[in-house]
Structures are given as C-alpha cells and as structure tokens.
Amino acid sequence: MAAGPGGMGGRGPVHFMTDEEKQQVPKVTKALLLRIASYLKPYKFQFFLVFVAILLSAAIGLLPSIITGRIVDQALVGKNLQLLVKLLIAAFATMTLSQVIGVLESYINAWISSRIIFDMKNQMYAHLQSMPHSFFTSEKQGDIITRMNSDIDGVSNVISGTLTQVVSNVATVVTTVIALFAMSPKLAIVGIAIVPLLVIPTKKVGVTRFKLLNEARAKSDEMNQMVDETLSVSGSLLVKLFTKEEVEYQRFVKINEEVTQYNIKEQRSGQWFRVMMGMFTQLGPLLIYFAGGYLIIRRGDPNLTVGMITATVALINRLYHPVQSLLNIQVDFTRSLALFTRIFDYFDKTNNIKDPLLGTAPDLSNPSVEFQHVAFSYDPGKQILKDINFTVPGGAMYAIVGRSGSGKSTVVNLIPRLYDVDSGHVKVAGQDVRSIKLKMLRQAVGMVSQESYLFNGTIKENLLYAKPDATMEEIEHACKITNIHEMIAGLEKGYDTEVGNRGLKLSGGEKQRISLARVVLKDPKILILDEATSALDSISENAIQDAMDKVMEGRTSIVIAHRLSTILSADKILVIDGGVVAEEGKHEELLAAGGIYKELYETQFSKVLEKE
C-alpha cells in the first residue's frame, strides 16, 4: 500500500489524516459508492480475475512454509535425501507459481487502473470543454489542472493500491490464521499474541512522524512558492531589475535548511521505529520457539514436532506485514472516497450555456445583431448591464465606447454566448442566440480580444487552428492583410517558427497581428474586435487599418475601440454607461450633444489622436 503521511509503506506507522482532511471527511452514502462502482463495472470480469489471482496467491503462499515443516520432520529427521530433493523442488515450484500469479495480477490490475483513468480523463476533459466561460474566469487554473491530472491519476493508487491491497492483505491474514490453527492452536495463539505489540508503537511513533512530516511539508510549500515566484519569467526579471539575487538566495538557503532539519528528524524517528518493529517481529518467532520447545521437552507433546514449530514461525512472519497494512484501512478508505468526491464535485458543476435541443439554423450570410432590453450580472446583486438596446444592421460596423468597467466587453461576449443574459434577448439574424445551434453560432463569429493568446507551437499551427485545411496561399494572404507576412517570411524558419509558451517569443504587436490573421482565415460573418489593436504602436496600427477596413467589408462588425481613427470610420458609435446605451450616433453628432462621448473625447480620444 502506498505510504501516506506518517507512513513508510507496509513496515511504517499507520497513516493519519490532516486536520483539513478530518474536517472534509466525505459522507459515505450508497449513491457515492454506486457512482464509484459505475467506473469499475465495465471491468468487472478483469476484477474477478484479479481477485481470483489474489486468493490463489494467498493460498499457494502457504505451501512453502508448510513444506518447510515436512522437510524438517520427514526429510532431515528421517534422513531421506530423495524426499528432501522432492520437497525442495515442490517448495521452489510453489514460490515460482505464486510469483507468476502475482505478476499476472499486477499486469491485469495496472491495465484496469490505466483504462479507468483513460475513461475518467476523457470524461473530465469533455466536461470541462463544455463548461461556460464563467467557469474558467472563477476557478483557479491550478485547481483545474489538479483535478484533471493529480486527482484522476490518484485513482490508480486507489485501485491498484488501496482496493487490491486490502483484499490481498485480508486473504493473506485469513488463510494464514486458518493454517496456523490447523497445525497447532497453542502455537498459533502465542504467535498472534504479539500483534498488539505492533499496534501500540506504530500509533505512538506514527503521531510523532506525522507531526514532523506536516511541519516539513509546510516549509516545503513555502520553498516551492518562493521558487515559483522568483524563477518564473516575470519573477526572475523583477529580481534582476532590483538586484535582489543575493537576498533571495539567502532566503532560499534559510528555508532549505529548515526543510532539511525537519527531514532529518523525521528520518531519525523512522530509523528507531524500524529497530523497534524489528525487535517485536523477531520476538514472535522466539516466543514460538520457546513455547514449542517447552511443550516438546517438558510436556512431551506428541502432536507437536520440530517441523511444525518451523512452519509456524514461517507463517507468523507472513502474518505481521499485512496486519500492519490493515491498520491503515480507515484512513486509506476515507482518502480514497475524498479523492472521488473532489473529482465528482467537478463533474457535478452545471453548465448553463447549453446547446438547444431543437436548435435552429438561420441564414447567417449577412446577419444583423440586435440587443433587446438586455440585462446581465456576473454576481447576484451586481448588475453590469441593465437595459441594453441597439441593432447593428447586416454588413454595418458599429463602435462601442465607454468608461473603463462600463461593460463594453460584456456586451460583445453575449453574442457568441460566452455568457447568457439574465433577461432580454440577444438576436443574430433575427433569432435569439439561445435558439441557434451553438456550434453554428460560434463558427459565424470571429473575435479578437486585447489579450491575444497563442498555443505553444509554430506560427503555422496557430493559424491553422482557424482552418485546418487552409492552403499555404490562404495562410499567407491572411497574414498579408494584417501586415505580418513580411515579418514571418524574414524569420529563419518562417511559418514553422515556434512562438513559445503563450507566444512569449513574439512581441505584443506581432501576437495580435497573428491573432487577427487567424480570424481572417476563419472568415466569420460577424467580426468582433475587443480593443484588438491596443498592443500595436501607431505605425503598426496605421499599417493595418486600411487592411482591417477591407476585412470588415461585407461583415457585421462590432469594435470596442480606444483609437479615434477606428471610431471615426464606424457607421454608428454606441456609448455604454450605467448599464445602458446612453448615447448613439456619429462622431460629430455626439460631440455636439455635449454628453458622455464629448467627455471621453476630451479625456481619452483626443490624446490618442495627438499621438497618431
């Protein structure tokens, strides 16, 4: 069984639960157990083979000890060399057979656990993919990765460790105890009497080691946090700019020293524990030799032989290890249930952005976009949009402006259903987006946000994400439109250049232009640009402005813009404020009205215009 906190595997102290684990002990219900069993059920035949193999191995494992008794009584005492050879061969054959069965059991067990993990990871990935955008903005990325990898991988230990080891240990204990009492009840009682002596020090030393392990882990977490912060891209840059290398090194040395000291103390306590356990496990056989010798020498017990004493000692040694392991059943069982509970907690997270059962397929060749009395809030009681009303005719380009936090990005996120409205309607081509097939809707929408994201691959691979069957000519054409082709062509590996994690090998402007080219390659009917040129300098933006105008021709376009040049080319400007469309019209009209737009123009747009 896998060693846990305070444990050293089979020969270590019993495992203990942390205070947090004690507070979060899952409630054992029939529904939970049946749900766990549903993942095991497809492999019930393989489990049957595993359990049969375990029982056979436990039964056959008795034979070498029993044969040892016959070797002493019949072959050695009887001075029968031929019988000795036969018994030795039989003992070797049974040990070999037991090992072979054990290998087959391990192989089947590993196959079962790997397939169950395969099933669960597929299910989890598909489930997480279907979750709404709000899930990923509220959940920690580390938690998602932990559920997807560490927790599901931990199921392997539950199946191949906890489950089968418990069955194996129970089978070994039961068969050994039966064999002991069948041979000599008196010696069996003497051998089993030592078991409580294994439990008492195990618990006492286990508590000490558990405390030391917890303290060591707390310091290890502190050290990991420091390593993560100071050796990350941003962290290491900060350390260099503030010349804190020596300070951070000394801090690391201090924490590392504390971790080392805790580990040394924990290992020392483990060493003394092993000495104690070795003494107690040797005490059992010594007591059996004494009791057996006393019964033969003083009492002249006719039913007891030297071979029986030898066989009993061998069986008693076989008994202690699984007894120690079974002391951990409660903790291991609880942790296993807690593991499944955490996984099921993610499976049970609901998705409120669902594909309609009878989804419609409207004509999206030149779609309009319409907002009717739309209200929306991320959190209850904190309404972002209150009563949004506007219509973008098919093929038109509208610009959305407003103060920071006014809900501009929220408005455009409602169109491809990254979120759903609280009330009102968002319509595309005259139909509510909630009634349109989700895949069709999102395929018709192209969106570029201010934070461009590229996968860790080549430039070409990132572009092909929009259109896997695109030709090289189409790829280059899209990049020429966004004025990035010449830069890519000038690279040593051209379009096969690796962009690095999140595109870190490229500048912000280069990443954004590649993202724009990716959307151009997608050829959407509705184009949404959420401050998509914010990372470009004036020269770069001016270089692609005409090209973007061409891209938007014939498409329904909505642009959240901070540059006046973009706003001036819009068919209409929408000013979002206070959760409503506070103003709408052309640039000159809105300036003349002297409202919010004029304030934005004087505080934001005019400064940008001067730079341009």
Distance between the termini: 68 Å
The strands making up the biggest β-sheet line up spatially as 6-7-8-3-9-10
Q: What is the CATH fold-level name of the largest domain?
A: ABC transporter transmembrane region fold
**Number of discrete domains:** 4
> Whole-number radius of gyration?
36 Å
- Uncertain segments of ≥5 residues (pLDDT<50)? 1-14
Could you say which structural class the secondary elements and strand pairing correspond to? alpha/beta
Strand proportion: 5-15%
Count of runs of 4 or more consecutive helical residues:
23
In CATH, the homologous superfamily of the largest domain goes by the name ABC transporter type 1, transmembrane domain
Shape: elongated
**Whole-number mean pLDDT:** 81
Helix content: 55-70%
The beta-strand count equals 10
Q: Which architecture of the largest domain would the CATH scheme give at its second level? A: Up-down Bundle
Could you name the key traits of this structure?
612 residues, alpha/beta, ABC transporter transmembrane region fold, 6-stranded mixed beta sheet, 23 helices, 10 strands, 63% helix, disordered N terminus
Describe what this molecule looks like in 3D:
The structure is a single chain. This protein has 612 residues and is an alpha/beta fold. It is 63% helix and 10% strand. Strand 4 and strand 5 (431-432) form a beta hairpin. Helix 22 packs across helix 23 (596-611). It is elongated. 33% of the residues are buried.
